Amino acid sequence: MKVPALIRERPESQTRHASRLMQPASVPTVDQVMVEERAASFGKRSLKTSAKLAGLKMTVAMCDLTTLEGKDTPGKVAYLCRKALQPIDAKYEVPSCAAVCVYPNMVKYARQFLGENSPVNIAAVATGFPSGQFPRPTKLAEVRRAVADGADEIDMVIDRCAFLAGDHAKVFDEIAATKEACGPAHLKVILETGELVTYDNVRLASEIAMQAGGDFIKTSTGKVSPAATMPVTLVMLEAIRDYFFATGIRIGMKPAGGIRTSKQALAYLVMVKETLGDDWLTPELFRFGASTLVNDVLMQIVKNGEGNYQGSDYFSLP
After folding, report:
1. Is the dihedral of CA 150, 155, 161, 166 positive or negative?
2. In this predicted model, what pLDDT tens digit does every residue of 3-43 receive, in sequence order?
3. What does the pLDDT look like over 150-172, one tens digit per residue?
């Protein structure tokens, strides 16, 4: 498994004890007006020529191609893996995508296709995705099985019921237990921000997820609206920044759902750079969970090289 070089090992005492959990009163409140105005400003930036092309290729390298449907088959997973390995003709010098994201039952098929030491990671959604309303032993068994089948990353969903009821220690304990069940795999913690209602809740849930051992925090499952938004992502990026200043530990970020165009993706990259800096402009610390985004970005890359747009029929479906 590829281990992100920028993620520092956590002390065991930091990731396993709910008694160390920061209390809600000590988590900063969010200025809604400031967050929304600042997030809107990133969408007004313009990248040109070589900077735009570099940003587009970076976006592809940060994408987790995803299929999470009841009709998923081994063949569909293999097709997704093939696209992730080589998104477009090699002459355009576009990197592989960061990962494919599938249900736990599909992990073994992705591993069979990708083999070992692939540049593309395998991520599995687990812990009762997307609701999170499964008993904890079932959730942890699902995680262990996915890792045993070859998952490099686990995308878990938090128990929003417990969080909204104020049982933050339960949320913390479940994330910590899931991190332990992951073994060598990296853990992305999905907050499902569309169900958390307020920016203050998003900020607090981000803090809990990082303290409990999450390697990434992720906005959404993609099954709830609204999914990723720029203001919500900015709140989470600022939580990551403050956590880094306090601990020296770099946590990754993954906005997921609703990001469909290259223009939107480039705005997110500008926001990451200006909030966290260049260290986070890498697939090891920033991902897009947006399969439909990839083809729009590839169309822009081809336009940059050929001088005209190709029709969408010239690109394989994500």
Report:
1. positive
2. 344 444 454 434 455 556 656 557 889 999 999 999 999 98
3. 999 999 999 999 999 999 999 99
Verify whether residue 64 is a known catalytic residue: no
Phi, psi of 186 (to 5 degrees): -90, 150
Residues 315 and 318: their CA atoms lie apart, in Å, by 9
Q: Which of 64, 159, 218, 296 is catalytic?
A: 218
Sheet (strand 99-102) strand order: 64-66, 99-102, 121-126, 153-157, 186-190, 216-218, 252-254
Sorted by where each starts, the structural domains of the chain and their CATH numbers stand as: 26-296 (3.20.20.70)
Q: How far apart are CA 58 and CA 269, in angstroms?
A: 9
Percentage of the chain beyond pLDDT 70 is 88
- Catalytic-labelled residue, pool 64, 149, 152, 155: 155
Angle between helix 32-42 and 262-276 (nearest 10): 120
List the catalytic residue out of 83, 108, 179, 254: 254
Q: What φ, ψ does residue 267 adopt, rounded to 5°? A: -65, -40
The verdict on whether 57 is a catalytic residue reads no
Concerning whether 91 is annotated as a catalytic residue, the answer is no
Give the predicted TM-score (pTM) of the model. Answer: 0.90
pLDDT of residue 215: 98
